[in-house]
Amino acid sequence: MNPRNVQIQTTSICNGTCSICPYQGSEVQKTAKFMDDVTFYAVIDSLKGVTVKKLAMYMQGEPFTDPLILGRVLYAMQHVTAEIAELSTNCTLFTPEMARKTVQIAKQVKLQIWLSYHGEGITHVPNEKIWKNLFPALKILTAENIKCAVVSSPNTDERRKYLDGIFEALGIVNKPHIMLPKLTNRGGLLKNISYVLRDDYRCSRHTDWIHFDVDGNVVMCCDDYQRKVKFGNIKDKSLESIVASIPEQVEKLAESDDFICYHCSTPGNIK
């Protein structure tokens, strides 16, 4: 099996209501729960012998709703051959205490963390509530040279300058990376984000990534919030057999106009 990026959904619970995310009302939200230990260990065991580039320990949820998340990151990195682990948080639960605990894990295994700050107009969370966690976390993480980034929007020079101003005001010397991704329609689920799309496209998610949902299913991608595509469950089949079956399954799915890739505004699919 070629080296892959891997995403593991240890929790499908999210406490956010962001307008740039299709979580609210989705199948993921309706069935939200934590990944049980049997499934978690089955997922990790299936990855032994697989060369993993990035091990993203979150998907379609807020990872810090999982009380076991940091221990699971540590265990996963100790039992999987991965270049780096990654967490991404909306910062509502990423308290200074949690930031310090994250530092302790990051001193044992290679870990990077993305901190989201899109503003209350998008998150519907007062800025002050986010600042209470974000600002101390930035100081704690950067003081220990933990790799971190602030993920924000919109993708403008003004936004970048605004964030740089925050870093300067906080006295941060080792400034975190600023990520200003172009917003997508998340597999066609966000009707308020519109692009002119190509007629026949599919991205590399199903060839370069392996996505495990909270039940141990290998799924199409992190934007399939309605759980339309499940390639197989790791508790029933070997990872090797599931991955080997994906190309044929995708070709079959692509025969339908409802195929998720045809409706997604991932960058390569925009005219």
Tell me briefly what this model is.
By secondary structure, the chain is α/β, with parallel strands linked by helices. It has helices at residues 27-30, 37-46, 69-79, 96-106, 120-123, 127-143, 157-169, 205-208, 239-253; strands at residues 4-8, 52-56, 82-89, 111-116, 148-151, 177-179, 209-212, 217-219, 230-233.
Write a structural description.
The chain is of the alpha/beta class and 271 residues long. The chain is 33% helix and 15% strand. It is built from 9 helices and 9 strands. It has helices at 27-30, 37-46, 69-79, 96-106, 120-123, 127-143, 157-169, 205-208, 239-253, and strands at residues 4-8, 52-56, 82-89, 111-116, 148-151, 177-179, 209-212, 217-219, 230-233. The chain has a 9-stranded mixed beta sheet with strand order 6-5-4-3-2-1-7-8-9. Helix 4 (96-106) links the parallel strand 3 (82-89) and strand 4. The radius of gyration is 19 Å and the shape is globular. The chain starts with a strand and ends in an 18-residue tail after the last helix.
Cα-based radius of gyration, to the nearest Å: 19 Å
First CA to last CA: what distance? 33 Å
Number of strands: 9
Strand order of the largest sheet: 6-5-4-3-2-1-7-8-9
Fraction in beta strands: 15-25%
Mean pLDDT: 93
Protein topology:
Blueprint: E1 4-8, H1 27-30, H2 37-46, E2 52-56, H3 69-79, E3 82-89, H4 96-106, E4 111-116, H5 120-123, H6 127-143, E5 148-151, H7 157-169, E6 177-179, H8 205-208, E7 209-212, E8 217-219, E9 230-233, H9 239-253
Parallel strand pairs: 1-2, 1-7, 2-3, 3-4, 4-5, 5-6
Antiparallel strand pairs: 7-8, 8-9
